[in-house]
Specification:
This protein is mainly α. The protein has three helices and no strands.
């Protein structure tokens, strides 16, 4: 398990990376950042990629639920 300081750095970097990704429209930017990190710290790279993936999964799950609710509400309105 990674050092708590490494996890904290990875979490902050993940948040910043996702914000930049959204701003510039490059949904694979995190892979490039991971490559940069891996060149000097595999530990930070792994923690960063985990932080990115969990956030992206969370966002996908929330989007899925919102769409399901929207579809459900639309079908109730149609009745």
């Amino acid at each position: 398990m990674a050092d708590p300081v490494v996890i904290e750095m990875a979490n902050k970097l993940a948040e910043e990376c996702l914000a930049v990704q959204n701003e510039i429209g490059d949904d694979r930017l995190f892979m490039q950042v991971g490559d940069v990190l891996g060149a000097s710290s595999q530990t930070l790279e792994e923690a960063f990629l985990t932080a990115i993936r969990t956030r992206m999964a969370n966002d996908a799950g929330r989007k899925f639920l919102a769409q399901k609710l929207k579809t459900h509400e639309a079908s109730k309105s149609a009745e």
